[in-house]
């Protein structure tokens, strides 16, 4: 099952189906049934490889049954790749569990060490970026070829340089994602935010929409006009007040950017919902700012997102993610002119599976009820543990944004996915690549502070794309600020990085 792609893409697909029918003598209905069967098979296979990898993790990485007999549940998400060759298998590249985020009042204490958002979907994306950087590192060291990453040819880089001269933005990353590898995302829960609002409403005793809106905290808590000169000035609030971006409530407000966490009694944050962040990935690619300095964003876009049928709202997903005119909030981007720096607008489709995750709330609840355990009140608990894994060696557990067993303010508690350590890995890879366009990348990554890296000229195309998406489709997006002043001296890996020429 899937909701339709935007009209231009759907028309192309219909034309393709008609052509197949003419060749093989199939009716339109037969072709539709075959496409739906392929869709279900693909969704099931993506789900299977993520669940299989999670099942291989040691017991300590999985939600336990507490000493008082209360079982824990947790969301799971994963990124999956598949080559275009029909015999190519689906392979899980990264996965994560988790469901919390860092309160806004603790952002200034993070110092690049504490994760901001450890919802499963966001951690899976960060783990994917770690995977990509490690693939680049392996290729640069000559350890092995990669099934996913390739060095860009001299011709590609010359064409990218010519495009830059013509004003189309910097796009001279030393690596590219392989053209013949597609990407998929599995989520055991509907992403929080707009995509899940119908599910939230249906779970209420009174499912009718609420017809009021919380006023802004302060009239001055608005965003400054966007400026491509810095990530900071594009969306930073003019005061320290936290705007009232709605979480789970205000059901009458659909298609809007929402904040985490969903619970109204939890500490407030400026972390945007998973629906909003995943929707934005249709524009910026799956790559983070740091990774996009080393790998071209072209081709690093999702083809499908897979959800359990029990957690799928066709209306919510179409509204949150699609560009279908009159339905999807991303539709204004269909009329956008050319996109710079290898970026583009690449809508994905949402498909469903009947398979459930063993530690979803539904599965854990069903097991408890089958065992005669009451599932009311506090007899089922969400897990505080967030787990990350990738295909090339990452495996760790975090609690409250830092490594399990460490205190939040202990620098040794930084996850491999925290800003500080990801910066260090990107800097190490850039030093290994060395000459050519990578020299400019290394110079930027060796900037004094994290903020200087994010605001660098090489990332101007990415800032432009984010600005366009936020202005035209994801209105109300306010940047999560307060953790970008830490320096490169603490980010650099222990291995010696070559000095950068001054000229």
Automatic annotation (TrEMBL):
- Give the matching SMART domains: ADEAMc
UniProt biased composition (Polar residues): 219-242
InterPro entries per the UniProt record, alphabetical = A_deamin (IPR002466), Tad1 (IPR042935)
The GO biological-process annotations, alphabetized, read as: tRNA wobble adenosine to inosine editing
GO MF terms on file?
RNA binding; tRNA-specific adenosine-37 deaminase activity
Residues in A to I editase domain copies = 94-478
**Region entry Disordered, spans:** 216-242
Q: What is this protein called?
A: A to I editase domain-containing protein
